[in-house]
Amino acid sequence: MSSGFGSWFDMKSKEGTNVAGWKMPYVVEMALYPLLVAQAVLTPFVNEWFGFPVGLLINSFYGCFLMHFFLVPWVQKLFNFWLLPKPSEAKKINHIGVVLCLIYLGIIAYVYVKFLYNLNLWG
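^ thats the sequence. predicted structure below, dont judge the formating
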């Protein structure tokens, strides 16, 4: 296995190429970042009830489940054009995909900062 994320990206293009290893962390980040913020917003009581170490364990446990079965597959489908581009278009598609990843993460960060901090959830 060439990457720690390899089992999530066991897919091949029609031409038989695999997902490039450098793209895997981008996809995982696009699934993980919204999950972590959602956990901070929706389940702060877990840390309050059980303390931070156990709360982190609980959030990690169900977070891994959501990542594996729902979030990473959803982001893969959304970015499949970039993960497995046609070899003739790979360079152009790779640039477009990275820009779209950064835009996606930027929009999510903006929404969280603009709206959730205005709700004064963190004191």
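The chain has a mean pLDDT of 84.
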